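DM between two lab members

TW: hey, do you still have the DUF3887 domain-containing protein entry open?
JB: yeah, one sec
JB: this one, 194 aa:
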Amino acid sequence: MQALKARMEAFLASRVLTRGDDWVDSIGHAVNIRAAADDVVRAVVQQARQDGVTWQVVGDALGVSRQAAFQRYGKPTDPRTGEPMNTTPLPGVAELAASVIRDLASGQWPRVAERFDPAMRDGLSEDALAAAWAQIVGLSGAFEGQGEPEIARAGDVTVTNTPLSLEAGDYTARITFRDDRTIAGLYIFEEKTP
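TW: and the structure you got?
JB:
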């Protein structure tokens, strides 16, 4: 904790804003400050949990749900083995999900299906995938764009939830990836408005 405190103090004392043309250096300093601040929050949350503070209290302090707090700062244990679970999402998964969605929206069914793991290949043909996308377009019009995905590690897979905008409706594309970058699950659901 002492080393973390010294690192944070050094970053805070460094010059971040500049009047010259050295924006790359300033941005780098700002990113380092953010990383140090994240490390401090993580350390404080771990200390609070060791003292018996609930995830609800942690979530309230962070302005998020207790589940979101746990997903970001928790250390889940695999109930099958008793070992700590890998909570690190698959690297590059946001771009991977975006490329799958681009392929769906442009009718590249074979490109999507070739990414399926064996179970998905057995359960969802290219024709069925095309029919499902056609049904969504039939209900809500043409695809207009996608937002930034929410990403979480769930056991042995990484799950992405990407907002989709169509002409007359909003959807979420939930795509589950294995560590070998194959698709283990693909589900698109409509966002209901109140």
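TW: got it. The two ends are 46 Å apart (CA to CA). The beta strands are 143-146, 150-154, 157-166, 169-178, 183-190.
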